[in-house]
Each structure stands twice: as C-alpha cells, then as structure tokens.
Write a structure and sequence with these properties.
By secondary structure, the protein is mostly helical. It is built from ten helices and no strands. About 30% of the residues are buried.
C-alpha cells in the first residue's frame, strides 16, 4: 500500500509540474519593452486559466485519492491495475491542457480534455467500487455511510465531464467553466453529508 501511494503521489506531482510547460516565452521577446511584455502576458490569459483549472482538478483528484486510501487496508493485483491505468490518464492531462490552450474554443480540443477528465475520474471511481464491493479492501473501521457518501461523490467529476463532452459540440467556449462546478458540488455535498451525520 505504501509503495502504491508513493507511486500515485509522485505521478500527481509530476503531472502538476508538467502543466507549466504549456507556457513559452518567445526568444524574439528578449530586449522588448514593458509594453511588449505586458502584451505577451495578457495574450496568454487563456493559458493561465487552463493551467489554474487543470492544476486545481489534479489537486481535487489527488485529495479524493488520499481520502479513499484512508479507508483501504490492503490492495491486490486488480486494485493496483485500476490505479495504474488511472495514473496513465493523469499524466495525459498536461497534454490535453496544452491542446485547449493552443486551440481555444475548438470542439476537438475541448472534447479531448473532457474525455481525459472523464477517464481519470471514471477509472478512479471504478477502482473505488472494486475496493468497496462487499468491503473487499476497506478497513473494518470504515462506516457504511461514509463509503456510500464517498461513492456518491465519485460520480460528480465523470458526470460533469460527460456534460462537457456534449457541450463541446454546441458551445466549446463554455466547457472550461463547467469544471469549476466540480469542487463546488463536492463542497456542498460534504456539508450536506456532515449535517445528516449529526
């Protein structure tokens, strides 16, 4: 379990670091004045937004993964492969982020990014479903209501990603903003679950 967690932490850290590579400073900008530099920074506002969005989504996925692993007492080969495949799609996020940054508002780029988010979140959810089925890998201390609520929360990101894939064919410019609802929905669900637990 410790080795699997270390691998996952390392891959998330690597993917989050790679996001910065979507920025580039043209060599022609060397020696330019303040106005030229300001113009360059403003022209990359879409890249800044996509960087922030992808970084925060990766942070949310990593946090959810940490909460899930808190309930898991041991792993097996199938569970490891669920996580390995999930990490394969996590590492793709810097590439899909570069696509939507390089070709903003195009259906293909927005659809590919949404598909990437869907695959990351769906594979993570399938791994969690596998672990909790008949309490296969979870600790004895984990309460059934906590497991049920975490499984419910796990459907939020795939659901939003599917909506984004559809919207990509209608209004691509809206897609990126839809992902901002993921942490908001999860926060609201967390508050509701806590109130019910009292």
């Amino acid at each position: 379990m410790h080795r699997l967690e270390a691998l996952i932490d390392g891959i998330y850290a690597f993917a989050m670091t790679l996001l910065i590579l979507s920025f580039d400073i043209p060599k022609l900008m060397k020696g330019t004045g303040s106005a030229g530099l300001e113009s360059l920074i403003l022209s990359q506002s879409d890249r800044f937004f996509n960087y922030f969005l992808s970084f925060m989504l990766l942070a949310v996925f990593w946090l959810v993964n940490q909460q899930i692993f808190h309930h898991i007492k041991h792993t097996d080969t199938k569970h490891i492969w669920f996580n390995v495949v999930t990490m394969m799609f996590v590492v793709f996020i810097p590439y899909s982020t570069s696509l939507v940054s390089e070709f903003p508002d195009l259906t293909a780029g927005e659809f590919f990014f949404a598909l990437n988010i869907f695959l990351v979140s769906m594979m993570g959810q399938l791994g969690w479903l596998y672990a909790t089925h008949r309490r296969r890998l979870v600790t004895e201390e984990s309460k059934d209501e906590h497991l049920r609520s975490s499984l419910m929360s796990g459907w939020v990101a795939p659901f939003v990603a599917v909506i984004s894939m559809v919207v990509a064919f209608i209004k691509p410019v809206v897609c990126s903003y839809l992902y901002l609802s993921i942490p908001l929905i999860l926060a609201v669900m967390g508050v509701i679950i806590k109130k019910r637990a009292r």
